Amino acid sequence: MILDRIASPADVHSLDNAQLVELCSQLRESILAYCSREGGHVAPNLATIELTVALHHVFNAPVDKIIFDVSHQTYAHKMLTGRAAAFTDPARASEVSGFSNPRESAFDLFSMGHTSTSVSLACGLAMARDLADQDFRVVAVIGDGALSGGLAFEGLDAAGELNTGLIIIINDNDQSIAENHGGLYQCMAQLRATGGTSPNNPFRALGLDYRYLEQGNDVVELVHALQEVRDTPRPVVLHVHTKKGAGFAPAETNPEAWHHVGPFPLDANAPASAHGSGATYAQITGTYLIDAIQRDPRVVAMSAGTPYIMGFDPQRRAQAGRQFIDVGIAEEHAVTCSAALALAGASPVFGVYGVFLQRAYDQLWHDACLNSAPVTILDFGASVFGTTAETHLSFFDLSMVSNLPNLVVLAPCCQEEYLSMLNWALGQRALPVLIRVPGAGVISRPDLAPAAPVGPSAAAADHATTESATIDWSRPAYQTVRRGERLAILGLGDFLPFAEQIADAVLDELGFSPTVINPRIASAIDMQELDRIAADHAALITLEDGIVEGGWGQQVVAAMAASGMRMKCYGISKAPGFPDRYQPQELLAKHGMSTAGILADVRTMLGL
Amino acid sequence: MILDRIASPADVHSLDNAQLVELCSQLRESILAYCSREGGHVAPNLATIELTVALHHVFNAPVDKIIFDVSHQTYAHKMLTGRAAAFTDPARASEVSGFSNPRESAFDLFSMGHTSTSVSLACGLAMARDLADQDFRVVAVIGDGALSGGLAFEGLDAAGELNTGLIIIINDNDQSIAENHGGLYQCMAQLRATGGTSPNNPFRALGLDYRYLEQGNDVVELVHALQEVRDTPRPVVLHVHTKKGAGFAPAETNPEAWHHVGPFPLDANAPASAHGSGATYAQITGTYLIDAIQRDPRVVAMSAGTPYIMGFDPQRRAQAGRQFIDVGIAEEHAVTCSAALALAGASPVFGVYGVFLQRAYDQLWHDACLNSAPVTILDFGASVFGTTAETHLSFFDLSMVSNLPNLVVLAPCCQEEYLSMLNWALGQRALPVLIRVPGAGVISRPDLAPAAPVGPSAAAADHATTESATIDWSRPAYQTVRRGERLAILGLGDFLPFAEQIADAVLDELGFSPTVINPRIASAIDMQELDRIAADHAALITLEDGIVEGGWGQQVVAAMAASGMRMKCYGISKAPGFPDRYQPQELLAKHGMSTAGILADVRTMLGL
């Protein structure tokens, strides 16, 4: 095996063409076998094997700097830079992350997992090189899907003015996670169809030199093309046409389904879901929204490149017609466009991972909140039980969203409450609403919330007599789940069951039954209820499934700080930095959120 | 006067060419007289008078929707839509804001003041129109400077795919606030030079139809051009070449200086500063950074279109050479590029208004903080004493930045502390640092901090024996300004003098001397000092010049919540929404921050 002899990219430099081809073949076999065992980003990694081998043949990493945008396509890069064993030896799979990670290897330049950053990073490296009078090459590899993000444009625009050597490789497989969206992609298709000669060239229009290579999965052609641009004295774009899922027929046929998958047999035609089976909030949301769309022509489901998180598989997308919009990886546009839709009378629902909503912070503030635009944002994955990669942690959302004026932040604890809140959000025209979709799994609690009505228009008509039709979820109204004594436990959203579990332990161990509260809202305080609690409780604790600093609990505690009650907020602290690939229960315990840890604190607070 | 007969745009529809020309002339005279009295955005408004008149002649607002990007160029629009008196009658000037405001007029569609949003808003309005089977026209007017923001690209890309009527007017005056930056602008210049026929067309490259008009300050030509695109069935770009400051020779000659100014005599050649005279943190920063740049070739001053806020006037920009970078209005790129610069050994300093740093929230999280990149961010205007327009409030920054892992957030109270912190930030290589530049004016407090050293390299050499050279500002170390009893008052940054003032009042009125603390850091808690305080004080209050929810004080209170101390956080609450054009002392009092209000709370907390 050639692969066995590659300890570092230096071993790739000397390979001849036949060996390069053979190396690609061995990498593809290993990566497929690895994905079959472990799951992972199948289609993006298969597309870039030849490009990666060619890059490490032509360039001299880590002296030369190669930056892979998003870095979900770096399996081959990792295998060529001393980390092959993690892909070939099942016992060592946990040694590598799915993304670029400088703690793992000097060949990984940044911790990164968000799209569209690579060109800006490359600009920074090239500028630092020139300021220090150093001499090395800088290469950014960015996929066509990532070009829809505004930061990619900002980076390309800056590169267009940078009078120094910089290579930008457009890895164009004509596919984002789902299909591409935007006028840009018509022009990208024309470029591919014309061998790069179409006049409407988005790269030349930013002042960049441009070259095209059709054979993006031919390692020998790639080597030639890279050699031609290697020593460029100014920024150049090399546009290469690759095939997502290349070399694995099912992924070539259905690259969206094979973008990121769980383990699968190699003779599988359709992948297993990476997200498990059973009821999911994706399915619940998709079902609800399709019904709402069919009842009301003004309901719009909006996605920024990740329609599946809200249950919009290709079938639901087709059903929704023009009432479903995927804007590409462009969260800023999604929020600003939603704000205008809402103010013009439509009912947009934007489903987004908490961590990617970060990209639209200013648009939330300026377009949605300042204008009180009645948009509904569904904040997915915001939980310590969500994705555990440091780049994708979505539980920092509470400090981002719960302090914005006018934004109603709701935290349902169960599917009944979720649907009631979603239904209310779509029916009201006053305020932007963000619903923190429970991230710790779907539970049903008909004892806490009535079964949901079936559509937004139904709220005003058919179901006017049910509680959920009459609740105004923007008014803070904490729900007392158990009325007890001495200690009040407030468990936000999906941490309500945790609050109940602590209450059980207090009864068992300390001999009294505490009060348990379901707050339901994270953006406002129920002062009436808190004053009642302060009148006959000595202590209060808050539990939230997210960051504690700037989150919800600190607002509760600050509101009651003059009372003299003993209080404590539980959540994940920012203090030790970003956790990476953690076990959720271990992380919670580390931050004081174990039954034993909380009981010990309660004893101290109550002087027991 | 024709102007006197214009009560609404309906009165503009019927004007003939000569009357349109005369109306423009009268508007120009009024706007110049208004700006001379009140100050304002002189150059942008003079550039767009003809365009605005032509728009209201050809389109039927408010049925047709016209969106002005940033909306700092809407004086003529306001004068034509029933608000002329505010510009012609000095007694009524306060009736209009400087930006688009729906509470002011149905002709203003959104509260807006941030760049690059208009195309996305227009897409949303066009989509809502189609979903409701309505029939009206949608026009976005966006300046060339605003095209550098990624959101503008995202909007244009989305428009390129929108198969419906939408008109995008590029108001190209070849000038941002300062000069334009980015490869895009070479191509814009080629388009202007070739009458729109240059092949490298950034709009066609996004799938958009395109037309060019050279005579962007000729109202008759503009009317013809607008009539041609008015009933377009699909998105079209009309690129018009305007002149910033048109009709006022000094502003035509120096549009940067005349972008936004204070009152000035009409025969003035150079404008008075809109920002007052005397020592400013802009000057202090510019002086320090030029010195640092001259000592160290790796120090880089970075701006996103607002170089003047950090003292980089054209002279300092020239002095700094390649060590000054203006990326255009592209905060995302500024932060991500800075992160790479820093990790590659350079020392970037990014100066930005707090409110615009919002646009780079994800880049702060993902590129700077996750990667512990030693960038220095100077957060300007973050104060209730900063800009009071609702669109530009910069005091929400604390809830945005003080909860991010790894980010050191420093809050100096005086210029000595500021320079010491800035000097330390540039000298360290471990962490990203944000310095909250005092927004309540420059004060000198040599009693609290030693005079600053003169440059980053000096910290290690010449001044190794001074305190500021040895302080590690990332370690929380609260400074006791007065050691007192019973009550501790923590005044963050520029609110330290306010804390001292409250302490004086407590001594006068309540007869005891409280402890006063200068916290100096907003991202970490000095638990040792707080525990000492809790041991012999019954109450504690925090004062911060910014939002209280999710800010700094709530972290202090949460850290001490189990102690039983009586505590209260003072800051601006998000609860009543966004304040607009307020009096700072009134706003503070409304949020409990008057001497009388705080004394009353202290009495209650101490049971007096």
Number of domains of chain A: 3
Main sheet: strand order of chain A: 7-6-8-9-11-10
**Estimated radius of gyration of chain A:** 26 Å
**Which CATH architecture of the largest domain in chain A is right?**
3-Layer(aba) Sandwich
**Structural class, judged by helices and strands of chain A?**
alpha/beta
Give the percentage of residues in beta strands of chain A.
5-15%
Tell me the major beta sheet of chain A.
Answer: 6 strands, parallel
Unreliable stretches covering 5 or more consecutive residues of chain A: 454-467
**Oligomeric state of the chains in view:** homodimer
Distance between the termini of chain A: 67 Å
**Overall outline of chain A:** globular
Number of β-strand runs of chain A: 16
Helicity level of chain A, as a percent range?
25-40%
Number of H- or I-type helical stretches of chain A: 25
Give the mean pLDDT of chain A: 94
CATH topology of the largest domain in chain A: Rossmann fold
CATH H-level superfamily title of the largest domain in chain A? Thiamin diphosphate (ThDP)-binding fold, Pyr/PP domains
CATH class placement of the largest domain in chain A? Alpha Beta
Considering residues with a beta carbon less than 8 A from a beta carbon on another chain, report the largest interface and each chain's count.
A-B, 123 and 123 residues
Layout of helices and strands:
Two copies of one chain form a homodimer.
Chain A: H1 10-13, H2 17-38, H3 42-47, H4 49-58, E1 65-68, H5 75-83, H6 85-88, H7 118-131, E2 138-143, H8 150-159, E3 166-172, H9 183-193, E4 209-213, H10 219-229, E5 235-241, H11 249-253, H12 281-295, E6 299-303, H13 314-320, E7 324-326, H14 331-343, E8 347-353, H15 354-357, H16 361-369, E9 376-380, H17 397-401, E10 408-410, H18 415-427, E11 433-436, H19 456-460, H20 467-470, E12 479-482, E13 486-491, H21 496-510, E14 515-518, H22 527-536, E15 537-547, H23 553-559, E16 566-572, H24 584-590, H25 595-606
Parallel strand pairs in A: 1-2, 2-3, 3-5, 4-5, 6-7, 6-8, 8-9, 9-11, 10-11, 13-14, 13-15, 15-16
Antiparallel strand pairs in A: 12-14
Helix pairs in contact in A: 2-4, 4-5, 4-10, 7-8, 14-16, 21-25
